[in-house]
Amino acid sequence: MPLIWIILAVLALGAAGYVLGRKRAVSSAGGDIRILHSLPNYYGMNVFLSAVVPALLVLVVWLLVQPAVIQRQVTQLIPDNEVMNSGELSLIMSDVRRVADGLDSAVEQGALTREEARMIRTEFTNIRDTLASIGVALGDDVNADVLNAAQRYRSLQNTGNTVMAAAVLILAALGLGYAYSRTHKDFRARNTVERAVLAILILASTIAILTTVGIVLSMVLETRDFFHLYPAREFFFGTEWIPSFEGGSHLGLLPLLWGTLYITFIALLVAVPVGLFSAIYLAEYAGRRMRGMAKPMIEVLAGIPTIVYGLFALITVGPMLRDYFAEPLGFGTSSSSVMTAGIVMGIMLIPFVSSLSDDIINAVPQSLRDGSYGLGATQSETVKQVILPAALPGIVGAILLAASRAIGETMIVVMGAGAAATLSLNPFEAMTTVTVKIVGQLTGDTDFSSPEALVAFALGLTLFAITLGLNILALYIVRKYREQYE
Amino acid sequence: MDDMNDMRMVERAVDDKDLKITAKGVDVFYGDTHAIKGVDVEILDKTVTAFIGPSGCGKSTFLRCLNRMNDTIDICRVTGQILLDSEDIYHQKVDPVQLRAKVGMVFQKPNPFPKSIYDNVAYGPRIHGLARNKAELDEIVETSLRRAALWEEAKDRLDQPGTGLSGGQQQRLCIARAVATSPEVLLMDEPCSALDPIATAQVEELIDELRARFSVVIVTHSMQQAARVSQKTAFFHLGELVEFGETSQIFTNPKDPRTESYITGRIG
User: Fold this and answer.
1) Is B177 within 8 Å of chain A by CB?
2) Which of B101, B107, B109 sits opposite A376 (nearest CB)?
3) Helix (H) or strand (E) segment spanning residue B83
4) A54-63, A87-96, A168-177, B143-152: least confidently modelled range
5) CA dist., res. A379 & res. A36, Å (int)
6) B123, A365: Cβ pair inside 8 Å?
7) Cβ of A469 under 8 Å from any chain B Cβ?
8) Which residues lie across from B18 on neighbouring strands?
9) What is the pLDDT of residue B27?
10) Does the distance separating the beta carbons of B104 and A374 come in below 8 Å?
11) Model confidence over B12-51: pLDDT tens digits?
12) What per-residue confidence (pLDDT) applies to B1?
């Protein structure tokens, strides 16, 4: 029974339950819905939920657990002498799965009967050719052990699926019956449904949190492998970044971190004043029509893909800075520079800072403005001494958000600042950032057991820790000062 | 406190005071709405003048004309003449910012800045450069807080945020803040409507004391409050000034039938 049919059947049961539950509730009240504790729909919903939710939960868990269980059972059939290490075992197991799936689709397409598929022997049939004729390509001739395992796999999966369908449908029916039997005019269906809604909401937020935890865990595991191969001290305090896949690499974090922070700093130097001032203009000075036009135009900047900003850096800003600043002033001849990437990234961040600050400034109560004007303050005095201090925590939050965005930016850096890891103060020199190197270490042919590839995870985790720290700091600042104008 | 609660409508000498503000034929429009219709009023120095009237009658709008706070609202248009010490405040040469330093304002809801108590009071003097040094500023802050009857409660916590005070204390802080710029007129827009009865009594007592130095104009919903604190009362109805006169006369012997209906509770 295909999965979609199981789900549809459960839903159909639920829908039937809804109608039945509703009807039973109404008839228990003698047709007068005013006597019911809850609206009739709640009784229907209650039956629907208790039929559908447990059944689907069991279905999901079953689908997750069954492959692992079958895998373990089938693995035992592979003789130990054929298995050298875990890599080979997984290759054999994938062969087993392909043969099994191939036989299944052969039956489905009519190339074999169910009986033939079950009785097929390596001694009499060339399975590789048989399967190739229906479009399943195998890399190798099928030996008896693999076929044996594949047959076992098929039968286990078959039983598993049948039992699963039965279990899920029975559970749905039981849930329906239970909820139906409890449906009565005094039953508090409204409260039960309320709890179910709460559970769904909690489930959604749990998924979000668990995903984050999963991402961090996967990074932590790979990073641990990296630190087994490469000393942590040299990673964190090394001042040289010279990866070489022949071994003997220097994988020092400091040049990359320096490049990241330097570019972020310049980006903020551009984005914060421009963004903040435009936010102040929009929120405090601009008329309604001006605001209606200017705000969307600034926000267009946020919609430009970063690769386009990268092009802008590469063909316009970089050469311009080189020709008019770096070369005349004797700072170097590179068109890729920290300055280029920083300025372009700053432009990218302007809408972040301005849009968030604009909202925050608008949230400052009008009564504070009135109070200041009433004392004879001008508009700019009011902005400087009342509105900005009141909005400061929010603005700091906006700036830190922009900073973590800048730290994570990759495309603009590759195209604007280059890929050379250098420790230098000269803003017209090519430098690079952590994110660029993560991409660099993982593209192309990589051996995931070498420190040169695994270092990407250590870099990623470091970056994650930095941006997490920034976000926590932002939250802390916002929380500490938020109550001030309430 | 005792004399706060009865209706003090004793005759008070108000004849020998100077004229502070004269309004002639003032009209106010909000877009197409005619909010104030041809109001003439004369406000005396060192006197408390109360504006009373039902909600939406335009009394707050008129009050905000007196320090040009309506300028901050785009769609608001004011015509007519308002003279402060025989100078037209809507004349081109008058800077509304300077005017507001001379005509202070206290709002309906206490609105202390999210700063320390000290900085709240020092805000106006700092902006207008009223103190030459820190010692002078300290003195201005202390005097203003004393005038607002807040000094005793606040002197040990001047560096704490003004928003941490209770509602009544916040409103007195706002009064201190307004007093600190040494205004000539103090406008109060329903200053007690967000306060409990005890805080209200304190603020009313304060208003009576402020009368010794300033001309006070107060908008109020409460007729008892108008009767308690004011010497002159103006009754507004539907954007018109219906009656203006001695408080005692307005409350005991109103000339206009609409005034009588309002103070006896038939309209409003």
Assistant:
1) yes
2) B101
3) strand B76-84
4) A87-96
5) 61
6) no
7) no
8) none
9) 93
10) yes
11) 444 567 889 999 999 999 988 899 999 999 999 999 999 9
12) 41
Q: What distance in Å separates residue A208's CA from the closest CA in chain B?
A: 36
Work out whether the CA dihedral A392, A398, A401, A407 comes out positive or negative: negative
Is B178 at the interface with chain A, CB within 8 A?
yes
The sign of the torsion formed by the CA atoms of B201, B202, B206, B209 equals positive
Per-residue confidence (pLDDT) for residue B4, from 0 to 100 = 45
The continuous run of DSSP H or E covering B8 comes out as none
Are B123 and A370 in contact (CB < 8 Å)? Answer: no
Question: From the CB of residue A139, how many other CB atoms can be counted at a distance below 10 Å?
Answer: 9
Q: Does A367 touch chain B (CB under 8 A)?
A: yes
- Read off the pLDDT of residues B101-154 as tens digits, 9 standing for 90 and up: 899 999 999 999 988 999 999 999 999 999 999 999 999 999 999 988 899 999
Which residues are CB-neighbours of B260 under 8 A, at least 6 positions away?
B254
Asked if B34 is an interface residue toward chain A (Cβ–Cβ < 8 A), one would say no
Q: Do B111 and A371 touch (CB under 8 A)?
A: yes
Phi-psi category of residue A236: left, alpha or beta, with phi > 0 → left and psi -120 to 50 → alpha? alpha
Across-strand partners of A96? none
Query: Which tens digit of pLDDT belongs to each residue from A38-52?
Result: 889 999 999 999 999
Q: Which helix (H) or strand (E) holds B38?
A: strand B33-44
Which residue of B lies nearest to A285 if distances are taken between CA atoms? Answer: B72
Is the pLDDT assigned to residue A140 strictly greater than 90? no
* B124: nearest CB among A370, A376, A378: A376
**ipTM value for the complex:** 0.86
Average pLDDT over residues A138-148: 75
CATH number of B17-263: 3.40.50.300
- Using an 8 Å CB-CB cutoff, list chain A residues near B109: 367
Least Cα separation, residue B174 to chain A (angstroms): 8
Instruction: State whether residue B94 sits within 8 Å of chain A by CB.
Output: no
For B68, name the nearest residue in chain A, comparing CA atoms only: A374
Report the DSSP beta bridge partners of residue B49: B217, B232
- Indicate the domain borders of chain B: 17-263
Q: Chain A: give the shortest CA distance to residue B133, in Å.
A: 20
- Long-range CB pairs of A24-28 (<8 Å, 24+ gap) are A24/A180, A24/A183, A25/A183, A25/A184, A25/A185, A25/A187, A25/A189, A28/A183, A28/A184, A28/A185
Q: Chain B residue with minimal CA distance to A386?
A: B113
Residue B105 touches chain A, beta carbons under 8 Å: yes
Indicate which of A364, A369, A375 best probes the interface with B, i.e. most B CBs within 10 Å of its own CB.
A375
Residue A114, pLDDT above cutoff 90? no
Does the CA dihedral B66-B72-B74-B75 come out positive or negative?
negative
Three-class DSSP category at B89: coil
